[in-house]
Amino acid sequence: MIQQKIRVLIEALPYIKKFNGKTFVIKFGGSIMKNEEAKKAFIQDIVLMKLIGINLVIVHGGGPNISESLKALRKESRFINGLRVTDKETMNIVEMVLAGQVNKEIAFEINNQGVKAIGISGKDGRLIRAKKKYIYEGDKKIDIGFVGNVEEINVDFLYDLIEKEYIPVIAPTGFDDRGDSYNINADYVASAISLAIKAEKMILLTDIEGLYKDINDKSTFISQLSISEAKELVSQRIIDGGMLPKLECCISAIENGIKAIHMIDGRKKHSLLLEIFTDKGIGTMIRGGEQ
Ligand code: ARG
User: Fold this and answer.
1) Does residue 10 form part of some domain?
2) Which of 102, 195, 235, 244 would you call most buried, defined as having the most Cβ atoms within 10 angstroms of its Cβ?
3) Per-residue model confidence as pLDDT tens digits over 236-260
4) Ligand 1: which residue has its CA nearest to atom 4?
5) Is 21 annotated as a binding residue?
6) Total domain count for the chain?
7) Under a CB-based contact definition with an 8 Å cutoff, are residues 145 and 78 in contact?
8) Is residue 281 lining ligand 1, measured as CB closer than 6 Å?
């Protein structure tokens, strides 16, 4: 028993050394945010990592909370290609829920544990400049309202917060020069921020275990893969349809210089610690070029 405890702690040592002073961007996603137990474990993991000396930036989602609020207001949620059609009224609710409720709650929980966190949206400190996104079906251009892509990240603002030991907790909304707000996919925001601040890792916490070669066969779980293997999964359409955009987003992030991306199951308690401080991890790790 004692031996085992020692082994666990010593296994963590090289990773504590390696990641001290480095920056990780963590996306805390959608439906796991409704799971109180998993959320509590997530906050503990964040606090522990920060105290070990890892700089953290958190980007959160909030889809289910938004749908719930829209439903309470009797407003239908409509999706095209997985993107929420966002009219002005919906955007107001998105901002209220994401940047108001969800964002402040996560930041508050971290602060409550004695680690400094600050909840902001992409509109604070001109953090995320956005550009309206259209969907194309053949040559048809579809307007889905106030949905955006990231155009520019204000890195100086993030560096200032990180330097002062704050964990920025970011709601994925953006602004443009006309003063409009945009709803942006949290995976894209996490990857744009990771690239802009040259993060050591991007970690996507979702409600899947990671990647499988065959989603129906648990023995085909992929613990780690190189960028060329990831591309092969995409080109051969081995990966399940819903995972495809996520994997493509990861591939482009790695190609642009992120060293490693981890996809881990946020429903499993302390999956973050298990992934980062053990040799085998628990999820799927996509390695960048030189690793
Ligand atoms: N803890 C190490 C790291 O964060 C290794 C993680 C391995 N993970 C995996 N899914 N195979 O770099």
Assistant:
1) no
2) 102
3) 877 766 677 788 889 989 999 899 9
4) 276
5) no
6) 1
7) no
8) yes
